[in-house]
What we know:
The chain is of the alpha/beta class. The chain has helices spanning 2-9, 13-27, 45-56, 64-73, 81-99, 105-128, 206-214, 249-262, 283-292, 315-321, 336-348; strands at residues 135-146, 149-156, 167-171, 180-183, 195-200, 220-227, 240-245, 268-274, 296-302, 311-312, 329-334, 356-360. It catalyses: 2 nitric oxide + NADPH + 2 O2 = 2 nitrate + NADP(+) + H(+); 2 nitric oxide + NADH + 2 O2 = 2 nitrate + NAD(+) + H(+).
Amino acid sequence: MLKESWSLVEEHQDKVAGYFYARMFLSHPDLRDLFPVHMDLQRTRLLNAIVTAVQTMEDPERFDDYLRALGRDHRKFHVVPEHYEVVGGALIEAMRAFAGEQWGVEYDQAWADAYAVIAARMLAGADADQNPPYWYGEVLTHERRSPDIAVFTVLPLQPLEYRAGQYLSIEATRYQPRLWRTYSPANAPRRDNTLEFHVRALGAGWVSSALVRKLRVGDMIKLAAPMGSMTLDRRSTRDAVFVAGGTGLAPVKSLLEELTRYNRTRWVHVFFGARTREDLYDLADLNRLAARYPWLSVVTACSDDPTFPGERGAIADVVARYGPWNEHDFFVSGSGGMVKATLKTLAELQVPSVRVKYDSFGD
Ligand SMILES: Cc1cc2nc3c(=O)[nH]c(=O)nc-3n(C[C@H](O)[C@H](O)[C@H](O)COP(=O)(O)OP(=O)(O)OC[C@H]3O[C@@H](n4cnc5c(N)ncnc54)[C@H](O)[C@@H]3O)c2cc1C
Ligand code: HEM
């Protein structure tokens, strides 16, 4: 019924989104302040997120951890329990308004029931969280490594616990308030609490271009809710392969730092790819690590640099030239296209999918 009823309005998604926000902001003007200033680009963001959640979570039990984390994370938007009813009501009204006569009361009920189950899990997650909704962090260093890439360090004002390989969300408070994007710390948790980030500015990307081109030492940013499961299993004795594209190197370096603290027995191979050699922005440090730890080897590749002295081609193809890989744990991170291509190659090489963890930076 959920899918059937959504298909009645799907074609007019943009108008449904417009109506949904108008309904919400007219009845509760205070809610407007929770959303970014410019909503044109991401008009359908929240609406799509809720519709996808409601439709894909036929078995909410399976998504319990995800929904709890999402609810916990929503605290950074200043969402409080009362907002859930307003949003759920506006969603159903917007769909009803555009579905016309084909809409039936049974659809109202189906959406209300599914939304209530999901909202309850998100609220339970938010309620159980002992952490603050977000942390303030001071920018300690900021270094441009290429026209589009910056490496910067941040000191959270309160301790922020996370695991190597996880990501957290950032608001560039001074430049793009209320816009949050996820970034992966490039270091394992340290005693001094500092976090290093590697960010590539994507064209006119709202948050990434502010972090690369505007952020200054001394600025305060907000950080929230560590999430993700691309973490090390300390019990695994298998050798490991890390495949990173561009700033996808950040979580890989975090995992490597953790390995340097205890690994004696596992061979670790890093494949680091980018379009041009200029984009291999952290090679000096990777080479330093490889020189220091005998279990670590690094292969670099450029896809669009015909005179590059290392490997040439897409990183997925480069990985396939080495191997065999069927006894290894894999960790893959980078742009959507790079991750997709690498997963396809690994499947062709018969690497069991349970041994592959990945974070895709794009759709
Ligand atoms: C789990 C996870 C971890 C991440 N970790 C990192 C990290 O450590 N470092 C890092 O640099 N990024 C990381 N990202 C990506 C980051 O979260 C943002 O998506 C990215 O910085 C773009 O945000 P933006 O606000 O600048 O762009 P938006 O304002 O969201 O998009 C602006 C424009 O850029 C276009 N665009 C979006 N993505 C791409 C793309 N890949 N290529 C070309 N154009 C694009 C959009 O279509 C849009 O027109 C991570 C993402 C995820 C999901
Ligand atoms: C079933 C309930 C809900 C679900 C499944 C849900 C899901 C999501 C998801 C997945 C995102 C991230 C979207 C992205 O980054 O692309 C998001 C963003 C957001 N959500 Fe929710 N949400 C719910 C309820 C609410 C409620 C009740 C509020 C309160 C107003 C709210 C406010 C926001 C805001 C402000 C954003 C950021 C939007 C933006 O950047 O444009 N959400 N939501």
